[in-house]
Every structure is written in structure tokens, then in C-alpha cells.
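Quick log. Single chain, no ligands specified.
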Amino acid sequence: MGIFNRDYSKPGKGVDESGAGSEGAVLFFEIYIRKFWKMIQVNLLFCLANIPAFLILFYLSGVFSNAVFGSFPNQIAAIAGLSAPDFNNPDFLLVYRAVDIGIRAAVTILFITFWGSGPAYAAMHYVLRNYSREEHSFILSDFWDAIKDNLRQSLAVFVIDIIFMFLFFYGISFYGSRQGIIKYAKYLVYCLFAFYIISHLFVYPLMVRYRLKFTQLLRNSALFAIASLPYSILVVIILAALTLGIWYIGIFVLSGTAMTSLLAIYVIAELVILTSTCAFIISYNAERQIKRHMAEDASVEEKAVFEKNTEPQNPRKLY
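-> predicted structure:
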């Protein structure tokens, strides 16, 4: 299937004079501000529909929590004022449970932010895709229709992501503990992990927009990520700043009440607006890069807009 434009010497379509207006970051913020209340609604709906996936990820993330405790038991005990772990000590148990919940929640949020979480995430991307293209969307009905339309592929992606999460984790752990030249293989795993992240910036946007076979979906996601590598890296940096950056400030810069307050605000923001904001950043960038790199004669079927929405001018037309 050829949807990817490899001929960079071929002139593009040029600027559509009838559609002249804001572009790039300016247009992003214009849409974001105009749709801010809608973003909150999408975020809340996603959190509700995503509860099963969240619970699955939260449970599986216990592997990471156990790994952290196994590597830093004395440091965790020191937080409770002890020299060594003591599960009979109520203060240690309180700290241990807080660290365990914190790590599980952090891994789950990072997984959802960078990789997604199946049907509910695909549905959120469909609604945000419409906003990125400045098209109307009926949030509740479109969200449900998008879940049904992308159920099989989104579940398959979710399962594969979970498998790769453990492969990357155990790969880094295994090679990192080896001696000799083989230990440097962990850097190859790091590179594969980074590539997997940037490829995912296009998986769900392509899934909700085109009718692709599963292998075609993964292949073209990787191709678009490579072709727009500078933008892909920028998006990853922004997402990292909105997640890891806030955690770093809260844990390592602030302390006491200030740290607790910042992390509490972050959790509330994640439930109210931050998840949809991160997804909108991904969706907006993906729409622009697809438009930029899509082949003129691409033989691919674009998914029809649900009947409740305004019909597109040409459902088969590719950017």
C-alpha cells in the first residue's frame, strides 16, 4: 500500500488561497482556546471510558514498582526514618504503599500519554482529529461510534504495547546487568524504545482516519515518524515536559507541602484537561505531517465521517 510520499523533488499542491489564515503553533492555540471546554469534556469522557485499561496498566505496573523497591530498599526505608525495610513498622508500610501507588500511577500515565490505551484512546483521537481539522464533532455519539469502528485494531495495538513494555523493561534490565561488551546492547534497546515512542505519534491518528490493514498501520506510522523526525522529537519533548518535567519539579525541586500540592494539582489536571491536551498535541502534529507527506496518488480509503457530522467535501480526497 502506498500512502507515503517518497518523491521529495515533486512539487506540492501549494497554498490553498481559499484557506489562507493562521498556521502552525498560532492555529494550534487558536483551536485549543476555542475548544477548551470541549477538551475538558473529552478528557472526562475518556477517563470514564478508559477505567478498564487504566486498571489493567495499574496492576501490571507493579513489576516496575517491585523493581524500584528491589533496587532502593534502604532509601525507601530512610524516608520512613529506618535504616532497613521493616514491614512490621506502620510508618514503613505507609511509605511503601505510597511509593508503590506513585510508581504504578506514573508508569500508567506515561504509557497512556506516549502509547495510548486502546479503544477509548482511539475514540478520543477521533474527536480531537476533527478539532485539528476544524471540523465539528458530537462528542458523546462520535466517541462511542469511534470505539466501535476502531475496536479490533485499537485492542491489538494495546496488547502489543503491553508486550513491548515488558520486553523493553526486561531487555534493559538484562543487558544492563551483564558484564563485558554485551552490556552495551542496552543502548540498542534504548534506541528501539525511542523509535517505538515516535512511531506511536501516528498510530492512532492514522487508525481513526484511514482504513488500513494492521501491518500497513504500523509500517506507515513508522514512515511518517521518520519523515517528520524533527517534529516528532519536538512533540516527545513537549509531552515529556508536561509529565516527567512536572514530576521532577515536584519531587526534586520542591519539598513538603509545595511538593504535595503540585502533584495533587497535576493529578487533577490529568483527570480534567491534561490527557486530552497531550493527545491534541499528537493529533494536531499528525494531521499536519500527514498532509505534508501524503502521496498525491495514494491508493488508500479514508474513513467516512460519521453521518451525524457535516459530510466532508470529498471523503476519498487525500491531502
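The beta strands are 210-211, 301-302.
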